[in-house]
Specification:
The complex is a heterodimer of chains A (562) and B (356). With 562 residues, chain A is mainly alpha-helical. Chain A contains 23 helices and two strands. By secondary structure, chain B is an alpha+beta fold. Chain B contains eight helices and 20 strands. Classes of the chains: A mainly alpha (562), B alpha+beta (356).
Amino acid sequence: MKKSPSKLIPYALLSLPLLFLFFFYFYPLAEILRASLTWEGGLQLSALLARLAGPPTLKVIGFTFWQALLSTILTLVIGLPGAYIFAHYDFPGKSIFNALTTVPFVLPTVVVATAFTILLGPKSPLNEALISWFGFSHPPLDLRYTFGAILLAHVFYNYTLVLRMVGGFWANLDPHLEQAARTLGASPWQAFRQVTLPLLMPSLGAASLLVFIFCFTSFGVVLILGGPHFVTLEVEVYRQTVNFTNLPVAAGLSLVQILITLLLTLTYSRLQSGLARPLDLRPYWSTQRRPQTGGEVALVMGNTLVTLLLLTAPLLTLTIRSFGSGIRYYSALFENPRSSIFYVPPFEAVRNSTRFALITMLLSLVLGILISLGFLQADKKSVDNEQSQKTWLLDALFMLPLGTSAVTLGLGYLLAMGRPPLNLRGTPLLIICGHTLVALPFVMRSLLPALKAVQPSLREAATTLGASPARVFWEIDLPIIWRALAVGAVFAFTVSMGEFGATSMIARPELPTIPIAIYRFLSQPGALNYGQALAMSTILMTVCVTGFIAIEFLRPPGVQSF
Amino acid sequence: MSFLQLKNIHKTYQEHPLLCGVDFTVEQGQIACLLGSSGSGKTTLLRIIAGLETAEKGAVWLDGEPQDNIPTHQRGVVLMFQDYALFPHRTVAENVAFGLRMQKKSRQEITTRVTEMLDIVGLQRFGNRDVNELSGGERQRVALARSLAPQPRLLLLDEPLGALDRNLRERLLEELPSILQRVGVTTITVTHDQEEAFALADRVILLHQGKVIQAGHPETVYKEPRTPWVARFLGLDNMLPATVLAQSPPKISTSLGTLILDSACQLPDPGTQGTLLIHTWGIHLSSTVRPKDTPTFTATVTQRVYHGRNYRLTLKLSVGALCLTQPIGSTPIPEVGTSINGWLDPDAMQWFTETT
C-alpha cells in the first residue's frame, strides 16, 4: 500500500506556531547575542568580557545567586513541615486550605511587592499596634527596601511549590515501604532516613531547583522591594536599558542570565525525569488520616494558622489600605489632572490590559491547539522511538520561554523589533506577542495532557462509525477537553494581565498596562499616588484571584495546576 | 467472489514481523472468529480491515472493491473496541445515535432506530442514562447497539466478552450470536478463548506466527486439527512422540506400545518420526467392556482436579502420561494413587508428521 500524505499533517499544523516561536523568541534572543558581542563593527567574544569585567558585574551576579540560595533554603524550611502535614493528615477544610496556598503563585509580582510595601512599611498594622501599646513616637519597624523584605516575598511566592511538589509526591508514597523498614528493625528516624528520604530526594531536588530558578529570575519583587541597594541581574538589565540606555551592556548581562537559567532549567528537567522512577504510587486517601493525639492536632492547627497568616496578611492589608480614604483612591483612577504622569486617565490602563489579555488569550489558544494537535498527530504516526524523540524535542522547544526571563525577552524585542524585517516598536502587537509567548507554555501544559488523555479508541470508534477527522475533533475531542481549554484560556488571560518584566521594557507611555501603572504610581511621591497604586493592585489581585477560582473550579479532577 | 477477502497481508510491529502473508475470506452473513494467542496480531488485523492501520503489503477487498484508498469513515466497517470506547460525554441514546448522525439521518429515523437497537440488546429504558454509570455488561450492550445502529456492511468485534466476569460472559455468549443472526450482519470477532470462538462462530480462523494456520467450521477444526500447535492451542494435550511402523494397515510405535490406527489414516514412510494425538473422548476407563482389537493400558492416577461439572484426571503410564475428563455421576471417579485399566479408541487418534 502507498504511503499516505497524512504524514505531513503534523508539520502543517506546527508550521504556524514554529514561525511564531522563531520570530518572537529565537530572533530576539539572537539579537541579544549579536548586540553583546558587537565591538567596533565586528563580532568579538572579548567585547562581552570587556563590558562585563569588573567588580560591579560580579557583585550583581554574586548577589543574584546569594539571594536565590537564601530564599530557597528559607522556603524549604518553612514549606517542609507543611509538606509533611499535607502528605500525612486529612483535616476539615484541607482542600480549601490547599487552594488558598496556591493563590500567591498566580498573583502578579507588582501586586505582591505593593502589598509587602505596606505590610513592612512604617504604616503597617504591626507598627500601629506597637505604637498604640508602647507609645513609640515613630514607627519602630521599617523593613521596606531590605534584604529581608525580598526573602519574605520570595517565600510567600514559592511556598506552594514546596507544598505541592514535595507534599504531593510524599502523599502518594506507599506507606508500606516505611512500615516494612520498621518491621525489619529500623527506628522511625532510621526508616525516614534510609527509606523515605532517598525516595523523596528527586522531588525535593526538583522543588528546590524550581524555587531557585524563580528567585534567580525574580524581577518585580526585587525592583520594588529592594529599592536602590539590592540589584539582581534582572534589575541591572532593566536599569542599564531604561535608565542608562546602555543596550550593549544590558545585552551582555542578559546573555549571562540566559546561560545560567538554561543550565538550571536543563538540570531541572533531568531531575524531573528522575521523578519518574518506577514506584508503586498510592492514591492519596490511602496514606492520610485525621490527626488524633493532642500533639498531632496542635501540629496541624499551628501549621495551618501560621501559613494562613503568612499568605493572607499581605493581601488583606493591601485590600483594606486601598480603601484607606474611602473610595478616593479608586475614583482618582478616572481623573486626568494636568500634572499627571500619564497622558491618559489611569483607568485607561485597566482597559488596555483587558484588551491585551483578551487578544493574548485568543492567540495563545489558537497556537496552543495547533501545537497540541500537531504533537498528537506526530505521536500517532510514530510507533518507533525515533519520532517520539522528535516530539519530546518540540515539546522542550515550546516550553523554553517559560525558563527565559521576561526582562530578557523585553530587551530582545527592543533590539530586534525596532527595524526591518519586523518594525513593531511601540505597537500593541509587540506586547501581545510577548504575552502570548509567556502564556503559551501554560496553555500547552493544560491542553496537551487533556488531549493525550482522550482514549485513542474513542476517536477510532467515531471514525469507524463514519465521522471524518474534522468531525472527530468537533464531536469527541472538543467536548471532552473543553475544561482544559477553559483553564488554558484563564491562565493566558491572567498571565497577560499581570505580566510586568517584558512590558516594562517595551510599553509606550501612553499605552500603560495595569502593572506598569502600578509601578509608576509607586515611583512617584505623595499619598494619592501611593493610594492609587494600592487601588490598582487590589483591582488586579481581584481579577487574578477570580481567574484562579475559575481555574480551580474548571480543572478536571486529579489534574495538577502546574 | 467472497464478501470479504484478505490477500497476503503483511505488517511489522516495532521491527518484528507480526503478520506475514495473511489470507482468508468471509462470506456475507457469516460470523467468523479470529482465534490466536495474545500477540498473534489478531487485533492488528481487525484494525487493518477497519482502515485504522495500513498494511505494508497486501490488500483488503470488501464486496468486490479494494479498500486501500478508502478512509476509515467511508468504509462502512464498524469496530467494537475491547474497552467499548463509549463516548463519556454522551448519554446511552446519544452514543447509539452517533453513527446515524454521521449518516445524516433525519431526527425521526434516528429516534426510531435507537429505540429499536436498545430494544434488541435489552436496554429499553436506558436511553437517558449516563454511560459512566453503567455496569460492565450494560456497557457491552450499549457498545453493541451503537455498532449495529448504522447497519454496517461489516462488524468487527475485538474480544467482545473479554472484559466481563464469568457468569455474564456465559450468558452473553448465548445472546450475542442470536442478536447478530437476527440483525444478519457479517461479523468478524477476535478472541484468544477457543470456547468463546466455538460458541460464537460458524467459521474459525486460526492465526499462528503471522499466518492463517487453519480455517473452517468449529467442529471440523476441533476434530481434525491440522498441526500439533493447533491441537495444543485448542487444549488437546494428549500428544505422544510416535514412529511409523507400517502404512497398511496404519501401524505406529508409541510409549503406549504398538497402536493400529483407523484404516482411512494416511501415514508416511515407515521410520518417519511424528506425533500422535489421542482425543480425550477416545480414552475409556474400563477394561472389561471394550471393542475387539483396541489397545489397552494400565496406569496410576496421579492427579485429580475438580472442575465443577467434571473431574480432570492425570494418569501416569509406565512411560508418559494421559489426561482425560470424567463427567460426574456416570462412574465413580478413581482416587489419586489407584491403579486402573483402560482402552483407547482408534477413531480418536490422529497422526501428525510434525514432531512436537
